[in-house]
Amino acid sequence: MSTNVPSYRSVTVRADLDSPLSRWLWLVKWILAIPHYIVLCFLWIAFFVVSVIAFFAILFTERYPRGLFEFNVGVLRWSWRVGFYAYGALGTDRYPPFSLGPEPDYPAGLDVAYPERLSRPLVLFKWWLLAIPHYLIISFFAGSPRAGWWGGGLISLLALIAVVTLAFTEKYPRDLFDLVVGLNRWVLRVAAYAALMTDEYPPFRLDMGGAEPDRTIWPQGQYGDGRAD
Fold this sequence. Notes:
This protein has 229 residues and is mostly helical. The protein is built from seven helices and four strands, in the order E-H-H-H-E-H-H-E-E-H-H. The chain has helices at residues 29-32, 34-61, 66-85, 120-130, 132-142, 154-169, 174-194; strands spanning 11-15, 108-112, 143-146, 149-152. The chain has a two-stranded antiparallel sheet. The N and C termini lie close together (10 Å).
């Protein structure tokens, strides 16, 4: 097993650019994604409630209840898949599944390593005070929250530039895709940290590309969904 482990390994975000992509489908994806946006509105309400429950569980037991953890990971996965399909990346024409599970056959995926212990003192501060520098940065990247995803920021603007280029050249610029995924990866890392799912502080680093920058090895060889390494 490789010992070349990246400095950040709590959250892994995967994205595979589909080819070919429709030159014009992106114009109506906002309509096609409406069922997902409706479901995600309710899922993110539940995500907030679960995070509050987890806050007290961590404060008293130093543990994030596994079932609640898996639910919140599922909400992040679902949101990332919808964002990748729609205006968070526009990187695939495959309709996202209505699923909290990992869905390994879908071109976008996310995992969070389950922490066996979490810090009681950190849980009091990390979701607001410690994360403030990241909030300032990702508000520029992602814009305002919307239906469990984000919109109006740099990410959506770059994705739209990419698909306008696609409409005229039949190609999604690869460098632009790598940048868009890197920005999303930053946002998702901060989301997991703010939701108390890890004590590992997100790096101020833009890890671009569809794959993580290096082989990610979780503690005890486990991913957030329980799959063995």
